[in-house]
TrEMBL record:
SUPFAM superfamilies to which the protein is assigned, alphabetical: Inosine monophosphate dehydrogenase (IMPDH) (SSF51412)
GO molecular function, one term: nucleotide binding
CDD domains in UniProt: NPD_like (cd04730)
Keyword terms of this UniProt record: Detoxification, Dioxygenase, Flavoprotein, FMN, Monooxygenase, Nucleotide-binding, Oxidoreductase
Keyword Methyltransferase included in the entry's annotation: no
GO biological process, any: response to toxic substance
Protein's organism: Chitinophaga caeni
UniProt similarity note: Belongs to the nitronate monooxygenase family. NMO class I subfamily.
Record's protein name: Nitronate monooxygenase
């Protein structure tokens, strides 16, 4: 058995609220941290200024520790004709659904990754940083460690966990295939699709650093099961999506209440990275188009304005509905309520 997270981090319960970009609000982070868990604020892909505003808003709501979550992806270049074909398809598809995308020419591509955010995190005195989509570069690891920051990296197979461990990361977040949202996978080749229990056992056998279990954990029994297998703690996302503090639109919350695990699947349609969400028309039409889907973050930028317009109209058919395989069993409640129920 590895050490419990409560002995390793300044928290009362070994439960981390998963960072969920687009869903997590400062209020969600603060509610979980205030109850003795570790809230996580997602800032993946945001400009340092936008991220700092969210950090400051969270600090207004809690004096307890919280984690900040980064995207550690590299940015490749993509042939323009692949981008143009996808964009032309999206413009036409949007039109057929009553949405007007601004222009026939491509949107501006402006990307941020963790390298743009690390100095701001140090200025804001953040002490816990989690990340996904890759590993931090050595310089960032050194800077953050020198400031006493604990680092938690996401792995979806043993090889990724070993890469994180050998570069000095402090905790591994083992993300099983059940998990909602983006896969943290970062190695070339076939996407690892390993269920949480097998993944946990693989990693616990070979790695020495503490492991946090993520994917499909939604009640006290599943928390205990993961910890019984040797996890030091758990990271939980989907059960918080239909909370009062969530930024999810009402029709997304409703779909979560109606759906079951078989209504979710992995797709690249929204962002160009594999992610699990509830099946909807946008996902199906982009996949059926037969077009090459540009990799993250390009596809994410191409689909951003349409998703934003759909959200403004509470249209669940045209935006991403990230969800894990263990869907919420209850109606909308406060994060405090959801967190307290996880304990018993
Ligand atoms: C809506 C949503 C958004 C997510 N966004 C992020 C993110 O920004 N950063 C991250 O590290 N993980 C993200 N994840 C993945 C979670 O960290 C975690 O792996 C997952 O929620 C665990 O599975 P569960 O949803 O079944 O609890 C997201 C998950 C969901 C459901």
């Amino acid at each position: 058995m590895k050490q419990d997270l409560t002995k390793l981090l300044p928290i009362q319960f070994p439960i981390i609220q998963a960072p969920m970009l687009g869903v997590t609000s400062p209020g969600m982070v603060a509610a979980v941290s205030n109850e003795g868990g570790l809230g996580s604020l997602p800032i993946g892909g945001l400009s340092p200024d936008a991220a700092r505003t969210l950090i400051k808003a969270t600090k207004q709501l809690t004096r307890k520790p919280f984690a900040v979550n980064l995207f550690a992806h590299e940015i490749s270049s993509v042939p323009r004709d692949i981008l143009q074909k996808m964009w032309s398809f999206l413009v036409e598809f949007a039109k057929s659904k009553g949405y007007q995308l601004d222009s026939p020419s491509l949107p501006e591509f402006k990307f941020y990754n963790h390298r743009h955010q690390v100095d701001m995190l140090l200025e804001e005195d953040i002490k816990h940083v989690s990340f996904t989509f890759g590993n931090l570069d050595n310089e960032s690891i050194k800077k953050l460690h020198a400031a006493g920051v604990s680092l938690m990296g996401t792995a979806t197979c043993l090889q990724e966990a070993q890469i994180l461990e050998s570069s000095g990361i402090d905790f591994i977040i083992a993300q099983g295939i059940e998990a909602g949202g983006h896969r943290g996978s970062f190695l070339d080749g076939e996407l690892p699709r390993i269920g949480l229990f097998s993944l946990l056992s693989n990693i616990l056998q070979k790695c020495k650093i503490p492991v946090i279990a993520a994917g499909g954990i939604h009640h006290s029994q599943s928390i205990r099961a993961a910890m019984e297998l040797g996890a030091s703690g758990v990271q939980i996302g989907t059960p918080f999506i239909n909370s009062v503090e969530s930024q999810a639109i009402p029709s997304y919350k409703k779909r979560l209440e109606e759906a079951t695990g078989t209504d979710t699947k992995l797709t690249c349609a929204f962002s160009g990275r594999w992610a699990r969400g509830i099946i909807n028309e946008f996902m199906q039409e982009v996949e059926l188009s037969g077009l090459d889907i540009p990799p993250y973050p390009y596809q994410n930028t191409l689909t951003a304005s349409l998703r934003k317009m759909a959200q403004a109209k509470d249209d669940h058919t045209m935006t991403n509905l990230w969800s894990g395989q263990s869907l919420p069993l209850q109606e909308t409640r406060s994060c405090k309520d959801i967190f307290l129920r996880l304990l018993y």
